Amino acid sequence: MAEAHCSLSSWWRVVVIISARPAFGSRSIPMRPWILLAGINGALAIGLAAYGAHGVDAAAVPLMEKASLFQLIHAAALASLDRWDRPGTVSARAAGMLWVIGVALFSGSLYAKAMMVPLPLPMVTPAGGVSLLLGWVALAASAIGKRSDPTV
């Protein structure tokens, strides 16, 4: 079986790097980090679901299905954050970061279990689930309170 190794610190670096706004020449081109993360997560979810349907033991298929389902749902949620993540919506940004961390931990640990890769820490899957849950709570919190941009 193929080995996969990914640490939380490497995922965090990805989140920080893609949140930056690159500059080309004298003009700054804004990057849309939530759309980028949504696309990456959506593609990974579909690819790993296909691999799970054909490349793992029958006993591991439910783990691959669950991991890819949760990853795909949160890819769609990340895409919606492109609309919500504006100045004054700190909770929306927190939701996105919690979802990225949650998908890495929750889906990543299920993929690892399905591919029989040992997990470096115990309770990774539940920690990822809690992160996903807190992301939804943060999104709900973004709907409460005053916004600096009334069109959002």
Automatic annotation (TrEMBL):
Xref: Pfam families: DUF423
What keywords are annotated for this sequence in UniProt?
Answer: Membrane, Transmembrane, Transmembrane helix
Q: InterPro entries, alphabetically?
A: DUF423
Origin superkingdom: Bacteria
Q: What is its main location?
A: membrane
TM region(s), chain numbering? 34-53, 93-112, 124-144
- UniProt KW Transmembrane keyword: yes
Q: How does the record classify its membrane topology? A: Multi-pass membrane protein
- Cellular localization per UniProt: Membrane
* Example of a GO cellular component annotation carried by this entry: membrane
Q: Reply yes or no: does the keyword DNA-binding apply.
A: no
Q: Which family does it belong to?
A: Belongs to the UPF0382 family.
Q: What is this protein called?
A: DUF423 domain-containing protein
**Taxonomic source organism:** Paramagnetospirillum kuznetsovii
